[in-house]
Every structure is written in C-alpha cells, then in structure tokens.
C-alpha cells in the first residue's frame, strides 16, 4: 500500500480568530509589563479591543484585525491615536501583513501569546488627557472585578 500525503488545513472562523488574537495580544501586554483591559470604550465613542496601562503610566491600544475583510471595511482605528501613547494592530500569523500601513506598531498573536513585529511610533499624551484616561481605566478595571 502506497503512502499518501495527508494535507490538513486549519480554518478559523472570524469570531474564533478575533478571540484568539485578542487573548494573545493581551497575554503579550502582560509579558511586557502592561495591565490590559479588553473592549474599552473611549471618550470619542469608539471601543478599543485591547487597552493597556504600562508601569510608567503609558497607554497602549491594540486594534485586533481578524482578517483582510475586517481591515478593509473598518477605518475607525485612525481615531484611537488621541487616546494612547502608542498604537498597534494585532493580527493572526496568517494575516497578510503587507496590506497594513507601516506607521502603527504590529503584533502577531494567537491564543497563547504574541510577538511585536514592529514597534509603534510613540506620541505622548497631554498630561490632562493622560490623567483622565488613567482614572477612567482604573475605575473600569475595579468595576469589572466587582461584576465577577
């Protein structure tokens, strides 16, 4: 009997990919010394997929893109800059990275963790905005712990 090649292709649905990349990006943020929260509403009404507070008070936002279609139809990510010091896209390993703009940072992640592929430019927040965001972030984290 001749051996036949077996080809397996893993196909993930968009919600599974989003969950996996979000989890990996949050774990990476923890590994980098940040305290992440998921799905954080910003003062402009947008929702950050991952927002993290660093040990020096720096604020980072990660926008998760589950696939090329998700990236092409969603341009709201450009409105996150005024609410963070640094901005990343977080994508799955199979995401075509060449379609992403070069300016934001880039994280490649799966359900177990992630890696920074490209560092973002850092644009420090104004002190008053930093204070307001930090207080809102702390309150949100505290309130979420009381729900559980």
**How many beta strands in the DSSP annotation?**
6
What radius of gyration results from the CA coordinates?
17 Å
Number of domains: 1
Intertermini distance: 57 Å
Name the structural class. Answer: alpha/beta
Could you estimate the helical fraction of the residues in percent? 25-40%
Beta percentage is 25-35%
Order of helices and strands: HEEEHEEEH
Largest sheet: 6 strands, mixed
Shape descriptor reads globular
SS element count, helices: 3
Q: Would you identify the regions where 5 or more consecutive residues have pLDDT less than 50? A: 8-12
Question: Strand sequence of the main sheet, in spatial order?
Answer: 1-2-3-4-5-6
Average pLDDT over all residues? 91
Protein name: DNA repair protein MmcB-related protein
Pfam family, one: MmcB-like
Organism: Brevundimonas bullata
């Amino acid at each position: 009997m001749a051996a036949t090649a077996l080809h397996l292709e893993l196909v993930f649905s968009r919600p599974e990919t989003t969950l996996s990349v979000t989890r990996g990006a949050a774990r990476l943020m923890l590994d980098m010394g940040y305290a992440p929260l998921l799905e954080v509403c910003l003062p402009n009404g947008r929702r950050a997929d991952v927002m993290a507070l660093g040990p020096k008070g720096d604020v980072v936002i990660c926008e998760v893109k589950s696939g090329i279609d998700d990236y092409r139809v969603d341009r709201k990510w450009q409105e996150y800059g005024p609410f963070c010091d640094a901005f990343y896209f977080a994508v799955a390993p199979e995401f075509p990275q060449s379609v992403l703009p070069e300016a934001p940072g880039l994280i490649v992640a799966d359900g177990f963790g992630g890696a920074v592929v490209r560092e973002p430019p850092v644009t420090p927040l104004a002190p008053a905005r930093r204070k307001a965001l930090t207080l809102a972030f702390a309150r949100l984290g505290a309130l979420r712990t009381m729900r559980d």
